[in-house]
Design brief:
Elements (H helix, E strand, L loop, with lengths): L7 E6 L11 H15 L1 H9 L10 E10 L13 E6 L4 E8 L8 H13 L4 E6 L22 E6 H13 L6 H15 L14 H10 L9 H25 L4 E2 L3 H5 L1 H15 L1 E7 L7 E6 L4 E4 L1
Parallel strand pairs: 4-5, 5-6
Antiparallel strand pairs: 1-2, 2-3, 3-4, 7-8, 8-9, 9-10
Length: about 300
């Protein structure tokens, strides 16, 4: 039996085959993914490295679901975080609260604030959300919060497709040394790839997308700070990331977005700078960073022509 962390009064070890109600897909998916963290060293290393967390050969990862924290032992079951991830290097621990959403469900702003406060109260290092929403980098987040909520706690986000892509690449590149661990990761990949899991690609633009096209066709002006433009750019960013995750398994390598240092560290600055060309030039663009390609691939979407170009 694995000992619970001191800050937790109750919790279940993350299982590859969780015993949960059929209706609780969020917790089931979280348990399976966290079990892969526990059981496959290369997978835990790849995923945590995306957050800037190094995982040494002697490091140990443990994970729990249905966690109840000492700071709030009476919290209703439906309001509990989906999991807790602990990386033990032998010298210190790095601990992250996990909240997962599957299908069309998304983490709400108030719920995220609540979990950040739980993390602070229990001296956790981070909160990680997992959903079908896409971000350019795991260090970015779909929900924009004032910096005061992020003091002393890091906030990260993975899409389910990102986790599935990393698992697929490890298997295709024969990056898992142990046959037992390879089998475990294959089962996780199989589950996340199945339609019933609730994992999906980015498959539709925002409702305002059609309105923006209509404004462009009628030559009406667009405001860079309008809700239509802001939501359209947000969806465009998700589409960019989804394209990277679709291309990565096909090419057998991680395809990324070519971002400036400013945009890597400040997603809001990136969003602002892309809103202006949409409003003024009726165009959106991004650059794909493809390993071993002779040059980066530039993609532009022209709203006036209702077409795109690649060069």
């Amino acid at each position: 039996m694995i000992d619970l962390p001191d800050c937790v009064t109750r919790g279940e070890v993350a299982r590859l085959i969780p015993v949960t109600a059929d209706s609780n897909k969020d917790q089931r998916a979280a348990s399976i993914l966290l079990a892969a963290f526990r059981g496959v060293h290369e997978f835990q290393k790849t995923m945590l490295n995306s957050l800037g967390i190094r995982v040494g050969k002697k490091a140990k990862v443990e994970a729990w679901t249905e966690v109840v924290f000492q700071s709030d032992p009476k919290v209703p079951k439906q309001e509990r975080p989906d999991g807790l991830l602990v990386l033990d290097t032998g010298k210190k621990q790095w601990r992250a609260l996990i909240e997962a959403k599957i299908g069309n469900a998304e983490v709400g702003e108030e719920q995220l604030k609540q979990y950040l406060q739980i993390a602070k109260d229990n001296k956790l290092d981070a909160v990680i959300t997992i959903s079908n929403q896409f971000v350019a980098l795991p260090t970015h987040h779909p929900i924009k919060l004032p910096k005061k909520y992020l003091k002393n706690v890091e906030l990260y986000h993975w899409s389910w497709m990102y986790a599935l892509t990393q698992a697929t690449l490890l298997l295709e590149q024969e990056g898992v040394e142990s046959e037992d661990q390879q089998f475990l990761l294959e089962e996780v990949q199989r589950y996340l790839s199945h339609d019933s899991s609730g994992v999906s690609n980015f498959d539709r633009m925002n409702p305002e997308w059609k309105d923006v096209i209509g404004h462009v066709k009628s030559r009406a002006s667009l405001g860079k700070n309008s809700e239509d433009v802001i939501n359209t750019v947000s969806c465009w960013h998700q589409e960019q990331r989804d394209l990277c995750l679709i291309m990565s398994p096909k090419l057998g390598q991680n395809v990324g977005l070519k971002l400036s240092r400013a945009h890597r560290t400040d997603p809001q600055a990136r969003h602002k700078e892309q809103s202006e060309p949409l409003a003024k030039k009726n165009a959106l663009r991004f650059v794909l960073d493809v390993p071993d390609a002779p040059k980066n691939i530039r993609v532009r979407n022209y709203f006036t022509k209702r077409s795109g170009s690649y060069f």
